[in-house]
Amino acid sequence: MSAESLGTNLLREVRVEGLDELLRSLRSKHEPQKPRIYTCEPAIDKLLNIFAGARDRLSHHQHQTPVLELVGSSPCSGKTQLVYYLIARLLLPSTYNELRIGGKNTAVILFDLSNSFSLLRLRDVILGSIRAHNPPNHPSLANKDSLNTIIHTSLTHLHIFRPQSSSSFLSTLQSLQNYILNIHAHISANRPVGAIALHSIDAFLHQDRLDDADAATLHSPGTNNPAAAAAANLQQPHQRFRDLVSHLRTLQLTFSTPIIATSSALASLSYQRLPDGHSVPLLPSHLPAVWRNYVSVRLICQRETIRKFQHGVSVLEVAGREAGLRREAVEKGRFVAMVDWSESEGWREDVRGRVGAMRGDGEGIGFRVLGEGVFVG
User: By C-alpha distance, which of 308, 262, 318 is closest to 285?
Assistant: First the structure.
């Protein structure tokens, strides 16, 4: 073998990586493996730690931080309210003067893709979280100036982007790293990025398909192969999601931040019985496979099931016997977030076992949505 051939073969075996990847691998090798605090909500952090480091089933990339998707089984499922809660926990400080708050004191990047995120509601959730972590008679809770300072300071570290199209969304993601690292562009330079939140990740999907179909018609009005044109149109959303995942993975590796996304369901919720006799929820996603394989764990959010009226019981009988209990259940605003097992065939055996063991803690992560805030547990 010539020296040139030998050198070529050796060069092929060289793995090129950036300094950030090298430092990250050294940190993961020498730091003790202990559960990470991602959201400051123990129930969700416990779940995210199970999936942290899970291997991407298509590209075999290693997730250093988990990707959480919240999907609603129906309208008013509570998924957006849970996002408000998680963002509040990430923005709030751990303590403030004599108040114990238990927040993560980070910055949050939010993409409001449906233009429906309410800062007024987030303010209520932040205030409710502060009150929930302290005794009702705590003197600092009566100090409105202190509370307003905490809320204002927290909200200044929420960076909201509202792109109006998928191309604008991808372009903003591509430039996000430069924005975050530019200490003159914002006041969050002294805070780590706690999460990148994508509200309504499927907001542009249907419009993109319509636009792609219109563009295909304009460019090839006399095409003799409608099937090929239709197949090409279907590939466009997949390519956009491939670009989306690529940008997000780069941001994850750079900032070691989790991704939190919400989406809506088109399929109906169903249950599958496992060999051990337990039933697990299934809610298949309508999003492209590249996104489904990128997500670490998917939580199905829904209102807590209220017992149906018994068959053959009159309305008057129910009104006298059960109406009060049913009204109380609705007024308590109880919701539940359950792990979706639709993509469980790609889970490692240890992940399946640990997620299955969590069923002993209940049917899912319960939370209440009230006027004064969102409360988990």
Answer: 262
